[in-house]
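Protein Record: Sequence and Backbone Structure Tokens
======================================================
Tokens: labelled as protein backbone structure tokens, with as many entries as the chain has residues.
Task: work out the structure tokens from the sequence, keeping to the layout shown below.
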Amino acid sequence: MEHAQERVPTSGPVPGPERSAIALELLVHGVGGTTPQEMLDDPRTVRITGDDTAAVFRRAEDVDAESRPGDYRGRPVPEAYVWCNLTSGNSARALWLLLLPFMVVNLAHWMRPTARGHRRTVRLYGLLVRLAGLTLTVLLVAAACEVALDLAVWQCAGTRACAERHSWLGFLSPEVSQNGWWSRPGRRLAVAALVPAALTALLWYLSHRTWSAYESQQPIDRRPGPDEETGRTALGRPGFWYGRRLVARLRAAHTAAGLLTVAAAVASSPARFDRRPGGPAALDTVGRLLEIALVATAVVVVWVVCRRGRTENRVDQELDEHLVRRLPLTALGLLLLCAVYAGWERPGWQSAGLLPGGGTTFGALALVQGLLVIALAVVAHLLYRGHPDARAVLRGQGGPAVAMLACALGGVMSGGVSQRVSDWLDGTGTSIDGPPVLLTWQASVIPVLLLVLLVFCAGLGRRAWLLRRTELGTVELDYPGEPKDTARTRRIATTRALAALTDRGPLVVAVTSATTLLLGAGALLGAKITEKAPGEAAQHAFAFVHGAAQTAQALGSWLIGLGFILFVTWGRRAYKDASARRTIGILWDVGTFWPRAAHPFAPPCYAERAVPDLTWRMATWTRATGGRLVLSGHSQGSVLAAAAAWQLKPSVRRRVALLTYGSPLERLYGRWFPAHFGPAALSSLHHDVDCWRNLYRLTDPIGGPVRLSGDCGPEVDRAPLKDPLVYGRTAQHPLPAPILGHGDYQADPAFAEERERLLARLRSEVPGPRPEPVPQGDSGRSSA
């Protein structure tokens, strides 16, 4: 790749708008990324603006195109915006898979139904999602406390057989170390607290560092004019892509919550010992004061999460310095005090059985998460009922369903890892008691859930087979007069049938969420039954259930171990294999488009860098040259293109034409995020830009029609492109044409036709009058 050593000026003294005839085609690639050479079809490219993370490139011969517009009459100047390094450039990002529950709950925040005039209900929806995100942070840290404090140092180090098998715990074992200084139960807990505290600090560091690298990019300075309507979608608001204040505030709250969870785990057991009859009065008083301080600080954390939301109507440059700095430091100070309190000498105190309080903590978290999801479903139903949208997934219940998946992921990961570590520490199966009963039951959910999904996938496979039979006849109609080739027809029909399964995604999410909710309730009930009827009574009364539960628990534990091995293997491969890094990056291309509004520890939002980049480029180029611009986006690039177009001033949007291909704007984003990409939002975008054309294929599992009509023709969508371009061998295609699916739309002649059509509309030197706004609810415009 050939880069310029410095920025190449592209907007010096050029003809004014009344004389300029220059046109620009700004290409934005999709998921997985590509190179500027491939996008521009030229081995010699120059970076004209940007850095190694994201940049705009041109062919070397087009660098000074603005100074000679006469050479570009009848054709645009191609530019490529390359943003793939925002998601898949760094191999360490493979480890972000650990943050998957946080990313999923953040998605639920943006999936609310369309609502107008229901501000309080919308705020309540966001509040419930933020609280669900807070419980996930507490759950993750509590799981780390369970592994380090309970299983490792309380149970294993307190048992001779287990401590002798794991020599690294010897200095903490009262029997192996002959009652050494660190072998006291409270001091063991204080040492083990370093693990969950370090995990919390790591999450804080990653959130702060990724914010500095991604989300600190300021959007273009713009104030909406009196004639500008941004109510149809929040993506056009000036502060939408700048969440600095909210991320910093939530990061402080979640960091404090994590440290408070560790402090409570350290202090709860010695406080119980001091509270017994005849216990030390002074230590009992200190313990009660620490408990009051922990509860008070936890209330402040919850208040911070509940009180503040996003500020989108302006670019919020302020930071709550006193809150951001003092809240985590206060929690850290309480943790240190709890560690000193736990390490105080207590004659007669020994560790036996489970660490007190673990089962109650996980049970309370599971119950709170279930109640939050149910409340979120009620709020979503109220919003959907006010403005029904037939295309919205699950009748507006997409957000609650995804929030349930996030909670389920957190619970399954916590239970599975705890059970797996317990099995590893307790080689004989008799040395330690293992994790709390609830976590064991949560591990047993994994094989049951996989079995349900296997049955459901079998149903989807049958549906795909039936759809394939239907497509066999359709393929023959699409290629009339061609000699019959059964194998070729079957391949095309199979590709179309599999691509259509994307539209069954909402049903998959619904089944998974409902199953996890029921299984979670069953895990809570099973844990309670096991606790109340232990030992032989449980085996006699519930022999079949008990045996099935034990089998599922063991299988779930091994499945978690297998999943962890696969995760580590995939992560190691990503350090060496660029294709593996690109595959992992695709996951984040879809999942991290949205700002971190519900969870600060989610992977960073790349759009907070990409959207301002595109907006600045389009605004400065049109202002400097007065030229016309075709914004050309493929796949996820079309979503970035639409978001950037919304950020432009109306006068600039009128000089922009939009060309999308393989676009998930309506098929995925419009259905899953109706409040931001619903019919009203897409209709307003179509009305504001000069023209919009969309290309898609029936073999594309991601892209689809946008279902809008307008003055570019009968509809924004062109008829589905043929894929493959030709059925059999021809003089122009002597070799079999490939089935392209989601890629290589430029290979179809329709792409060049539609681009030329857009340029022809923009060819006039002064934009023509805008058509009158359409009435609300009408998705089209009058014909030109």
